[in-house]
Design a protein that fits this description.
Low-confidence stretches: none
Number of helices: 4
Strand content: 15-25%
Mean pLDDT: 80
Order of helices and strands: HHHHEEEEEE
Largest sheet: 3 strands, antiparallel
Number of strands: 6
Radius of gyration: 47 Å
Shape: elongated
Distance between the termini: 141 Å
């Protein structure tokens, strides 16, 4: 007991040292926890910033696409509304010639002049349509092609190879690669 009594503060010092070590450990643990929390917050902030940036890009892209779609609709409506304007303007010249020809026919008794006027107007109509891209589909002498020809008759023939168009019953037309109306044809078959 005397040893214990000889230094009464010794236990207290040990306890103080233990408390100090515990406090330091707690402080270190708190610092580590705060450091981890700060790192997590930093990561969260970076992720939030990246999310916000991507979200803004998405919103802009969606708005741009919506504007593009609206422009396309307007352009399509304008094309439908005014697309025939050029064709009609070209055909007005033909209509004017028909009206002039009609007035001129009132005083003409010569059939040949009527035929000539009719031929001129027919040529003008054809030329105008050709300028707009209309092409006649060649048929007579060609091999039958169901993409361009509509066979309404088949005639046995020794003069022509089988599946050859021997007569055109109604002209067919196309614009570019698109068939507007197939040619009605008579096709040769073997006897």
């Amino acid at each position: 007991m005397t040893e214990n009594n000889s230094n009464p503060f010794k236990n207290e010092d040990i306890m103080t040292e233990e408390k100090t070590e515990q406090e330091e450990a707690a402080v270190e643990e708190t610092v580590d926890t705060e450091s981890e929390t700060n790192e997590e917050d930093s990561k969260d902030n970076k992720l939030q910033e990246e999310y916000d940036k991507l979200n803004q890009q998405y919103i802009r892209l969606a708005a741009d696409f919506d504007n593009f779609r609206k422009r396309q609709v307007q352009e399509r409506e304008a094309l439908i509304k005014y697309g025939t304007e050029s064709a009609l303007t070209n055909l007005l010249e033909v209509l004017d010639n028909f009206e002039r020809g009609q007035k001129a026919l009132e005083n003409i008794d010569d059939v040949e002049k009527v035929k000539e006027s009719f031929s001129l107007i027919h040529k003008q109509v054809y030329d105008t349509l050709a300028k707009m891209g209309l092409e006649e589909i060649k048929a007579v002498g060609e091999e039958f092609d169901p993409n361009f020809h509509n066979a309404v008759m088949r005639t046995p023939s020794t003069e022509h190879p089988e599946n050859t168009v021997i007569a055109e019953l109604q002209k067919g037309y196309k614009v570019g690669d698109k068939v507007i109306r197939p040619t009605m044809v008579n096709v040769a078959t073997q006897e």
